[in-house]
Every structure is written in C-alpha cells, then in structure tokens.
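Your task
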Amino acid sequence: MKKPVCLALLFFCLTGTLALAQTTKEEPTIYTVAPGDTMWGLSKRFLNDPYYWPNLWAANPTVGNPHFIYPGQRIKVYSDRIEIEEAPRPNRPQAAQPPAGKAPVAAAEEPAAAREFKITGSEGFLMERQIVPAGVIVSTHQNRAIVGTDDIVYTDVGRANGANVGDRFTVYQKMGAVSHPVTNEILGERVLPLGELQLSEVDPKVSKAIITKSYQEISAGAFLLPYQERRVHVPLKAADRDLVGYIVESQTGNQALAVGDAVYLDLGTAHGLKAGNLLYIVRDVKPDQRYTLAKIEQLPVEVIGALVVVRTGVNTSTALIVKCVDTVYRGDRVELKKAR
C-alpha cells in the first residue's frame, strides 16, 4: 500500500507545481507605440533603465535601429524585458472590384513617415584633397582684423571665375589636418563654417562682398565655398551594406564625446555610405583568459551608442551622435549593418 500512496502524493505534488507555474506566469502589458516614441524612451518608461536599449536592439532583430519603431506597433512589456512585434501594415480601404474581364489594379503601398534629423550647418566637415575653394577673403574694410555681419570684405573671386553680383558663398576656416587614429594617414583638414557673404561688386579677378551672416569671427584668409543651406532635414535611410569605420575627429577637437556632438568618420560615398545612415558605435570586449578552459579569440562587441550621417564626402563624412550609454572617444569603431 505504501507504493501507491507515494505515487499519488508525487502526482499531486507535480500537478500542484504545474498549476502554480501556470498561475504565476507573467502576463505582459501591451503598449501601442505612439508618435515620438523611441527605444530609449520606452526602456526608461517601462524598465526605468534607458541604458537597456542595446539589449532591446539585440532582442528584436526586425528593428534596425532605435528610431525605426512606428506608431501603431505593439510592444509587450515584462518586468525584465520588452518585446516588439513587427510593424503593422497601414490600414487601407477595400479596393473596389474591377469590371468583369479586367485585371485588378494593385493597391499602392503607403510609405512610412520618414524619420528626419535637423542639422544647423555648424557641424563642419573634413575637406578632402579634391575639394577646391571657390576663393579667399583677401582683405577687409579698413584692414580690420575681425569682421562680422554687415561688414565689407574683398575676395579673389571675379568674373574670370564665373562670378556675378548677388552670388552667395559660405565662409570657412581651416582648423588643421586630421590623421587616421589607426593608420596615421592624413584624411583631410577639419573646417568649420564662419558665416555667409554675398558679392556686391564684381571685377574681372576680384570682388567686393558684404557679410550677410556671421556665426564666428571672420578675418582675412578665410576661404569660400558655394553657398549651401544651413538648416536642413536629413531623413534616415536603411543601410544596403555592411561597413566598418572609425571616428577620426570631432567638430570641437575634443577627445571625449557625448550625445549631440558632431564627429567625422573615415567612410564616405566611395564606400557606399549615405546621408541618413545610422551606425552603431561599438567597442571590443576583452575576455579574461584566467577563467577559460580554452583560448577565446573574440567576444560579442559592446554597443555603446549610435550616430547618424548628415553629410558625406568621397572618403569621409560628418555624423551626429544621437545615443550613447558610455563616453565616446576619438578612435572608437563604428559599424553600419544592412537589414537582414
């Protein structure tokens, strides 16, 4: 009799454990993504940990970057994690049935709203060898050392250069050559915008101009490039290839960087990089061989941030750091990942 009694007790214990597991299984909270939501914000809101977003990327391979979540997407919020469902297709009215004998017309796909970044034009760039200045400020009115808005300057741009009265230029200053942190190759010169000018009188080889805007002090020797609109919106673009590069310099020249800082990369259009691409900032994790039975060559990289490309040159580009969970440094590696 003892054996059947023991089996019965074991059966009731097992069924009780299963029932308890079923009753204690956590039910997720369902949240629908609203306009303006980001992974960073969702992590902070639901997990009280904005630094969870790299794990959120890793756990959701269908989401390419922290901004590619869409209004209408549903997320499942657990106590220790967030799971994101695939973005739903936009609802469209039922197409009318075509007349007999005619093929149905395919409904047009409604594109998702473009995600954009606004830039101010103060980010600067690396001037590569193939970029030739349009001219130089050769003198200022009354030989003043520094000029600003509404002041008069003189340039070496004339009719021989195809210039006309009313032509506009952006004024830049060279800040020094930039070398690659790994190869020491000179990539170009760091340049920053100083202001804008417009030609008021044009002679064959020289011209008179008025400074229409100044962001920083302008002096003789500053060079000119054809005018470009400063404040523009850069839409995010999905990557169509994998790339690996480096942060080679920053706009400020600082070594330690954070969100909002402009940086320069050793990747450009020659590599297939496009304005609007989002890259991860990554750092290698070194294994401690003392605790391994066999030698470990490499561990998964640590994702410490993300940046968006806002301007591309041939071999270099300008980008803005949009997220980071640790201090970013000149020389950090960046990776562009094609959507799988």
User: Anything to note?
Assistant: The chain has three domains: 27-87, 125-232, 236-336.
